[in-house]
Design goal:
The complex is a heterodimer.
Chain A: E1 3-6, E2 10-14, E3 19-21, E4 23-26, E5 31-38, E6 44-50, E7 56-58, E8 64-68, E9 73-78, E10 87-95, E11 107-108, E12 112-117
Chain B: E1 5-7, E2 10-13, E3 19-24, E4 31-38, E5 42-50, E6 53-56, E7 65-71, E8 74-79, E9 88-97, E10 100-103, E11 107-111
Classes of the chains: A mainly beta, B mainly beta.
């Protein structure tokens, strides 16, 4: 079964600092990749996604992520964080079987809490 | 479109009571997922449906948990009897296209 690992449990930054959150997955086949964000007390919202094509994908609010297939990684980046980016970030993988079927099942990482100080 | 609707938003109940959580998915979306989120275990997939049929319920923790999707517009997650360790936020998620899931606001369940 596939698994998703997020390297950092809690990241603390000051405003304007650059951000990179690591995500690695274990699955040798075709995957769809996602980053979700959960603001305090709210539900998960899609930040960005990768299905195919350009491995550098851009999402909302200035976030981007790069898919490196050889490293089974999908790291999230933002060049300059804001206080409003304080949230928990989840990496998720949708693994497709040989026939390309998955029913959309996602495997989530354990989440990374980002705290941005003003 | 109102998005995924869950009710109640908060539920406080005593141990041993039956709890029913409800989800109204986005109209026309075929797949529905129930998740549980706790500080200790993170986000766990409990069960998911495709075209109202349960596909995988291996994440359901115990027989006390059951889920149904009688039609495309409604799903329930039931816990009977409830226990304090069931306290969590339960999310319903819907998938319109290609694995992109939309989450409901969640139900915060507290079992005392």
């Amino acid at each position: 079964a596939q698994s998703v690992s997020q390297h950092n449990h809690h990241v603390i930054l000051s405003e304007a600092a650059s951000l990179e959150l690591g995500c690695n997955y274990s699955y040798g086949g075709t995957v769809n990749l996602f980053w979700y964000v959960q603001y305090p007390g709210q539900h998960l919202q899609l930040l960005l996604k990768y299905f195919s094509g350009d491995p550098l994908v851009k999402g909302i609010k200035g976030f981007e992520a790069e898919f490196i297939k050889s490293k089974f990684s999908f790291n999230l980046r933002k060049p300059s964080v804001q206080w409003s980016d304080t949230a928990e970030y989840f990496c998720a993988v949708n693994a497709l079987d040989a026939g390309g079927t998955s029913y959309g099942k996602l495997t989530f990482g354990q989440g990374t809490i980002l705290t941005v100080h003003p | 479109d109102a998005g995924v609707i869950q009710s109640p938003r908060h539920e406080v109940t005593e141990m041993g009571q039956e709890v029913t959580l409800r989800c109204k998915p986005i109209s026309g979306h075929n797949s529905l997922f129930w998740y549980r989120q706790t500080m200790m275990r993170g986000l766990e997939l409990l069960i998911y449906f495709n075209n109202n049929v349960p596909i995988d319920d291996s994440g359901m923790p115990e027989d006390r948990f059951s889920a149904k999707m009688p039609n495309a517009s409604f799903s329930t997650l039931k816990i009977q009897p409830s226990e304090p360790r069931d306290s969590a936020v339960y999310f319903c998620a819907n998938m319109p296209v290609r694995a992109e899931q939309y989450f409901g606001p969640g139900t915060r369940l507290t079992v005392t």
